[in-house]
Structures are given as C-alpha cells and as structure tokens.
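Sequence, structure tokens reproduced for absentees:
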Amino acid sequence: MRYTRFGFVVLLAVMLAASAFAQAPAAKPHVVILATGGTIAGAAASETAAGYSSGAVAVDTLIAAVPQMKDLAIVTGEQIASIGSQDMNDEVWVKLAARTNELLASKDVDGVVITHGTDTLEETSYFLHLVVKSEKPVVMTGSMRPSTAMSADGPLNIYNAVAIAADPQSRGRGVLVAINDDIHSAHDLVKTHTTDVETFTSNEPGLIGVTLFGKQEFYRSPAKLHTAHSEFSVKAGQKLPRVDIIYAHANMSPDLIDAAVANGAKGLVIAGVGDGNMTSPALEAVKRAVAKGVVVVRSSRTGRGIIRRNIEVDDDKVGTVASIDLNPGKARVLLQLGLTKTSDAKKIQDYFDRY
C-alpha cells in the first residue's frame, strides 16, 4: 500500500495527536471538605497538653496543613460549624445534610469529606447515611488528638478521607468513616474508648475496607438501605421530632419515662439491660407512653448484639419496637426520621428491619 506525501503527513499528525491524548493526565476529581469542628480542629496550649479547645482551627488551615492532598484531588473547603461534637444538634445535622446534597448534585463535585468530632460521629454519620441522596462518596473523619498534639492523627485521617472520596470504588457504599487507617460504614460504626486512637470498631459486620496512605482495599458494601435508596429526606430549616434515650439499670424507676413524655418527647429509646430489658415498673411506664401515642424502641446498653422482637418482652402486646442491630444512639436517629413519616409502631418496626 502506497501513501502520498500529503497522506503520510496527515497520518503522522493523527497518530501524534492520539498519542498526546492518551498520555494527557486525567482531570483530578473535585472533593469538598465540610468542617464542623471537633478534636480534629482542636488546639491545645502545648503538644503534650491533654486539654484543648474543639473547633479552634478553621477548614482552610486544616487543608493547608496537608498539602499532599493536592496530588489526590482538587480540594476546597467550607465551614459549616465550629463546635465540639458533644454539642452537635438537629439544626446542624439538617444544615449539613442540605449542603451535602446540594454539593453532590453538582456535576463539578465528585465527593464530600466531613470533618467532625468523635463523640457523636457515629450518630451524625448514620443520620447522613439515611438522608444523603447520591451515589457519590461521602466520607467522614475525625481525630482523637487535637491538631497541635504530638503525633496528631488528624492530618493522615483527612488525607485518607480525601483519597477515599476521590476513589470511584467508593461510590454507592453509603456514608463512610475513615479513621485510623480503617474504613467503616456509618451504619456499623461504634466508639468504644474515651481516648484511644483505635476507639472505633464495626463489631459483627466488620470493616468496609482499609486504607494506607491513600490506597484503598474494599471488602464489602452495606447490606441495608441507605443514601440514594433511602426513603428519608430532610430540607433546610426542618425541625426534627424530640426523641429521648432512657438508660436502664438495676432498680430503674419509671419516673424518667413519665417525665420525658410529659415534656414533649414523641419517641423514646430505652437503652435496656441485656436483650433490651428493663424493670417491671419501667415497663409499665412504657405502656403508659405507648397509650399516649409515643413510639418506644427497645435497644441495649451492652454495645453488641441484636434486639429481636418478642423474646423477653412481648412487643406485640406492649406495642414497642425492637431496634434490631442499632445501638441506642443510632436507634434514636432512625426513630427521629421515622417519626417524620408516621407514628405507627408497626411501620416504624419495618424501618428498623430494613435500615
């Protein structure tokens, strides 16, 4: 086959252009960091001081402290709140959910990272797990040591969280939590120690995956409904119904149950002993609450295991809901959202079975 000189030049130009296109670096994903405060943004008087002020460091400073993130993604940040997560509240939850959904709806945003205190990280992450409406990655992170501490754990946690949010493998797995080189599902995450950097676990379900300096290995996806497949949603400014948690113990009095109902609780979660149990007088108070239209969920203070219906408490007769695999804090989150739709205990039980 013979080429004219002109044809050869054209062919060569096309080949060079194709080669240049193939070698051109792919556009970096855009990850937005939403900061809420917490220990990860905390500052202490010295590198060895145990006390510190939560939320003292702004999001731009957090980003500037980890310049290596620019190799992973285009990273921008917004300050949603500057509080310790012991002060996390419904108003910030709704604001955070609304902004997260707004960002993920944009074609210019590929993932969201949220920095948060560890005290209520499991609750906020599960709330977002139920109300975020996107398959795009949402990755939460925090730290057990403030940013000024010797061997602060925050910078690497943020770096790994951005890497996970930028990773296409993270899509469709719901809200993830990246901390201490582990990747948890928001559904399963539990804090188990007051100060240890390895405080978080996922108990029986196990980790979603692991990360090491921005390289991920994924093991599984959550089994229950979440994010884009969830029927729950919130909108800016929405008020959530009051749900209180009552801690069960030996010689438990019914007074706190009655008081919570009298003060406007629309739902109660009993952090029961053992398999979601409580004293006989407390159970009588639960019956009174149910008769007044309050939805009562039985969970457990033990930290592990499943609360099944009608084992030691006759849920069908009493009218209570079994929390299944949700601990008291997460049971409260699901009950709050469930009550935005119904106060029918049977329908609420269906939510606990599926979420």
